[in-house]
Fold these 3 entries.
Entry 1:
Amino acid sequence: MAKLFFNYSTMNAGKSAILLQASHNYRESGMDTYLLTAAIDGRAGAGQIASRIGIAASADMFRAGDNLFQRISDRITKGPVACVFVDEAQFLEPQQVWQLARVVDDLDIPVICYGLRVDFRGELFPGSATLLALADDMREVRTICHCGRKATMVIRQDGEGRVITEGAQVQIGGNESYVSLCRRHWREAVGDCPDG
């Protein structure tokens, strides 16, 4: 029976590498996969899922307003799909998560999503919140804070390394902009918690 999976973490936990390895395993067994990534994040190039360790694969891009159930339905008319993989799933709109759930329920195709759980303010992304509500299976991809504890939060910093606590939820960036921290060190970095 197909399921909707949500694999979540902070920045730099290796989510894309795990996605690419899982897709490779399917393909090595003779099963085709369908890869999707957010068009908003072009750091690896348009239509690319890439890991910091140097592996990459081509993917179709999703944008706000895209009907992912229809996209996947159209794709399977060209041949069977054993699994759908979605990178940067935090950028999904809530209705797109429902469309992916429909792929699982109505087309019986597993969908495995990888993304951030919270933003630099400690708030859920809308796509992640909906995945947390709908996913059949959730797994945390772990990474560590500089202190050795599990990192569950992320700070945004400017070009001088100063912590930024306000701004738009989405700002594309990598190691130059974001640092993963445990909750304690995140609180120290942002001046305790938002409610004071």
Note: The mean pLDDT is 86.
Entry 2:
Amino acid sequence: MEKLLLAANTGIVLCILAVLGCVAIGYPFADHFSMGAQIAAHIGMLIFGVGIKVSYVLRLIALKELGRAFR
């Protein structure tokens, strides 16, 4: 379960960074990217947002199995 907790925490961090990158591509720096890249960034926001939620659920499962408190 320690490996699951580590994977979940890593997944949360990576997905948050990816969402921030997608937001940067899709909005403030949109003029510097092609339309295809902007579309991909908007789709990426949805996908990585789901990744954050799935990683968080996995984190809760790992914490429960390890007997640690949820926060």
Note: The chain has a mean pLDDT of 96.
Entry 3:
Amino acid sequence: MTAEDLAPLELLLAEQDEPQLTPGAFKDVFRRHPAGVAVVALEHEGRPVGFTATSVISVSADPPLLAFSLASSSSSWPAVSQARTLAVSFLADDQDDVSARFATSGIDRFAAGGWTALPTGEPVIDHAVSWVRARIVQRTPVGDSYLVSLRALESGTSDASPLVYRDRAYYRLRP
């Protein structure tokens, strides 16, 4: 993406004369939108860093690209801002406790175990539905967050059912 590609986005964000949703109304819309639950994790300065994300999206199959957003105020942002690679673990329907742990500030999110470091160092959550190890290709500032774009390098999958989050509650998908 070049500077010219970003210019239209900056212009759209700068338009102040049209009405816009309040942050609360915007959050209310997305609280009602169900999302898969993932833990994004990486190694930073010899220690694991991770957080819960419901913003992970598939961007392209060829090349294999995915992305997530992260608030610039997040305690994990300094590590993500410097990382080269990371892992995204898509949680299974019995891992709501893992999601809650990785969403909690001020604790060692890895102390309770339940994760394994890949040979390349990135932590993945044990028994997740799937995981992707990826290289960060771009960090784009958007509003008060960053859109982090990734190129998938390797993955693993299981037959587990996914964990879904909607309106501050966890749900399980059943056939």
Note: Residues 36-163 form a domain with the Pnp Oxidase; Chain A fold (CATH 2.30.110.10).
